[in-house]
Please model this.
Amino acid sequence: MIQQFDLGDVVQMKKPHACGANEWTVIRVGADVKIKCDTCGRIVMLDRLDFVRMGKKILKKKESIPEEPVRGDTPPSKIERMEQHR
Ligand SMILES: [Zn+2]
Model:
């Protein structure tokens, strides 16, 4: 699940795209979420809840985190920690 995401984030879904790639850029966030396949450029629209459910993890935040540039191998535990709000 991807519970927190922002416009411009690169995400991985539970199911790869038909073209075989599994890297998507979030291009619209609202009641619906639009993601663009980074490989073939196709755009897919999902309900926000479907996106949260089908999302696997965030590969790259739009803005890199200052102390540690986020690469594709960020462990999920790290992402969860960043999601905590007070
Ligand atoms: Zn594709």
User: Anything to note?
Assistant: Helices lie at 48-54, 76-83.
